[in-house]
Amino acid sequence: MAADFDRGIMKFKGADSRPMVAISAVLVLGFIGLLIWWGLQTAYAFS
Q1: CB 21 within 8 A of CB 10
Q2: Is the pLDDT of residue 45 over 80?
Q3: Can you tell me the distance from the alpha carbon of 24 to that of 15, in angstroms, rounded to the nearest whole number?
Q4: Which residues cross the membrane (predicted)?
Q5: Residue 41 falls in which region: left (phi positive, over 0), alpha (psi -120 to 50) or beta
Q6: Cα–Cα distance, 31 to 22 (Å, whole number)
Q7: Which residues contact 44 (CB under 8 A, 6 or more apart)?
Q8: What is the per-residue pLDDT for 5?
Q9: In the prediction, which pLDDT does 28 show?
Q10: Which residues contact 16 (CB under 8 A, 6 or more apart)?
Q11: pLDDT attached to residue 13
């Protein structure tokens, strides 16, 4: 029996598949890393 996670903001078939979860995780973590890098670059730009 498969879990029904096709609800909320991800309302399409296959939203809870492993490849889609992996792609989403990479995008979210990459964006967080980019924000941290940008923040550090900005904070120390005038040192």
Answers
A1: no
A2: no
A3: 10
A4: 21-40
A5: alpha
A6: 14
A7: none
A8: 57
A9: 96
A10: 3, 5, 6, 10
A11: 74
- CA gap 5, 3 in Å, rounded: 6
Which among 26, 29, 7, 28 has a CA at the least distance from the CA of 16?
Answer: 7
* Residue 6 · residue 12 · CB < 8 Å: yes
Q: What is the pTM of this model?
A: 0.64
- Amino acid identity, position 28: V
pLDDT tens figures, 7-39: 566 667 777 788 888 999 999 999 999 999 999
